[in-house]
Amino acid sequence: MKATVYVTIKENVLDPKGSAVQGALHSLGFDEVSKVRIGKYLELDLDTNDRAAAEIRIKEMCELLLANTVIEDYRYELA
Amino acid sequence: MKFAVLVFPGSNCDKDMYNAVRDSIQQPADYIWHTATDLSAYDCILVPGGFSFGDYLRCGAIARFSPVMKALVEAVERGTYVLGVCNGFQILTEAGLLPGALLRNNTLKFRCHQTALIVENNNTPFTTAYSQNEEITIPIAHGEGNYYVDDATLEEMQANNQIIFRYKKGANPNGSTDDIAGVSNKRGNVIGMMPHPERAVHELLGSSDGRRMFYSILNTWREKHGEATVVR
């Protein structure tokens, strides 16, 4: 089973990298971009076919290591 | 008094920390590799700066799970003094020993220069040799030193006097919440800061204001344990 995890900086926390990329897009003429947020994308291969169990484990991984929940949100997909 | 300097793969301020202890207060210090599991022999544990585990994923996120961190938590519970500087500060927040988290500098630049700090609380084991509200000069060197804490936690920290250092007004180099440069835990035996006191222990380095942090630690410890042995 494959898990994809997305970690993003929380909405109310400044994302300096996103702001820099937004500035670059504006200077290239893409003025319609009102906000850019940069996050992390992780692919995990799991040795299990038990979806419910995998979900519990992935949540644990996110809370413990993959995201710092003081400043980051996470979501995941299982396929 | 016995000092431990933790060493993670990627630590690079461990020698500075070790030399600062030896040169400023002449106390014995040991380098402790991150796989160690017992810190009971030490009175103060120093978590140095650097790029532990390459700072992959997030600064300090992987170091937080090194075996030595379990021993560190036990030492904190015993009341041992712990000082984390720069990457050490990041590791302590990741471990939940200190509130908040460190983000990329709002300037997007790696900032490496002297900063003016205000001593906000001189009533901690680490700051007794400073005056309250004194301005001191301590250098910074970081790309991710933008201290973030939510409003509710900030209020609680203010009520508990957990803000130890602030950047001087108008001189915040990284966008830190409320100009915060260093914080402590509730009990006051753990502090973390982005500026490097160990790099400010001699006028030759541009400032000797960091020396007094090491004097503070030794003096507070002596008051509790009697005179410490001087190592020559």
Automatic annotation (TrEMBL), chain A:
SUPFAM superfamilies in the record: PurS-like (SSF82697)
An example Gene Ontology CC term for this record: cytoplasm
Family: Belongs to the PurS family.
Pfam families: PurS
Source domain of life: Bacteria
PANTHER family tied to this protein: PHOSPHORIBOSYLFORMYLGLYCINAMIDINE SYNTHASE SUBUNIT PURS (PTHR34696)
Free-text function comment from the UniProt entry: Part of the phosphoribosylformylglycinamidine synthase complex involved in the purines biosynthetic pathway. Catalyzes the ATP-dependent conversion of formylglycinamide ribonucleotide (FGAR) and glutamine to yield formylglycinamidine ribonucleotide (FGAM) and glutamate. The FGAM synthase complex is composed of three subunits. PurQ produces an ammonia molecule by converting glutamine to glutamate. PurL transfers the ammonia molecule to FGAR to form FGAM in an ATP-dependent manner.
Assembly information from the UniProt record: Part of the FGAM synthase complex composed of 1 PurL, 1 PurQ and 2 PurS subunits.
Protein name: Phosphoribosylformylglycinamidine synthase subunit PurS
Pathway recorded for this protein: Purine metabolism; IMP biosynthesis via de novo pathway; 5-amino-1-(5-phospho-D-ribosyl)imidazole from N(2)-formyl-N(1)-(5-phospho-D-ribosyl)glycinamide: step 1/2
Catalytic activity reported: N(2)-formyl-N(1)-(5-phospho-beta-D-ribosyl)glycinamide + L-glutamine + ATP + H2O = 2-formamido-N(1)-(5-O-phospho-beta-D-ribosyl)acetamidine + L-glutamate + ADP + phosphate + H(+)
Keyword Protein transport belongs to the record: no
Keyword Cytoplasm assigned: yes
EC number: 6.3.5.3
GO process terms (BP): 'de novo' IMP biosynthetic process
GO molecular function, one term: phosphoribosylformylglycinamidine synthase activity
Locations listed in the record: Cytoplasm
Keywords recorded for this protein, A-Z: ATP-binding, Cytoplasm, Ligase, Nucleotide-binding, Purine biosynthesis
From TrEMBL, chain B:
Superkingdom of the organism of origin: Bacteria
EC number(s) given by UniProt: 6.3.5.3, 3.5.1.2
Entry keyword annotation includes Cell inner membrane: no
Subcellular location: Cytoplasm
Catalytic reactions on record: N(2)-formyl-N(1)-(5-phospho-beta-D-ribosyl)glycinamide + L-glutamine + ATP + H2O = 2-formamido-N(1)-(5-O-phospho-beta-D-ribosyl)acetamidine + L-glutamate + ADP + phosphate + H(+); L-glutamine + H2O = L-glutamate + NH4(+)
Entry GO CC: cytoplasm
Example of a GO biological process term: 'de novo' IMP biosynthetic process
InterPro entries xrefs: Class_I_gatase-like, PRibForGlyAmidine_synth_PurQ
GO molecular-function term, one example from the UniProt record: glutaminase activity
Pathways involved: Purine metabolism; IMP biosynthesis via de novo pathway; 5-amino-1-(5-phospho-D-ribosyl)imidazole from N(2)-formyl-N(1)-(5-phospho-D-ribosyl)glycinamide: step 1/2
Keywords: ATP-binding, Cytoplasm, Glutamine amidotransferase, Hydrolase, Ligase, Nucleotide-binding, Purine biosynthesis
Active site location: 86, 196, 198
SUPFAM superfamilies reported for this sequence: Class I glutamine amidotransferase-like
Entries under SMART domains matching the protein: GATase_5
Keyword Protein biosynthesis: no
Complexes and interactors: Part of the FGAM synthase complex composed of 1 PurL, 1 PurQ and 2 PurS subunits.
NCBIfam families attached to this UniProt entry: FGAM_synth_I (TIGR01737), PRK03619.1 (NF002957)
Stated role: Part of the phosphoribosylformylglycinamidine synthase complex involved in the purines biosynthetic pathway. Catalyzes the ATP-dependent conversion of formylglycinamide ribonucleotide (FGAR) and glutamine to yield formylglycinamidine ribonucleotide (FGAM) and glutamate. The FGAM synthase complex is composed of three subunits. PurQ produces an ammonia molecule by converting glutamine to glutamate. PurL transfers the ammonia molecule to FGAR to form FGAM in an ATP-dependent manner.
This protein's name: Phosphoribosylformylglycinamidine synthase subunit PurQ
Organism (species): Pueribacillus theae
Lineage: Bacteria, Bacillati, Bacillota, Bacilli, Bacillales
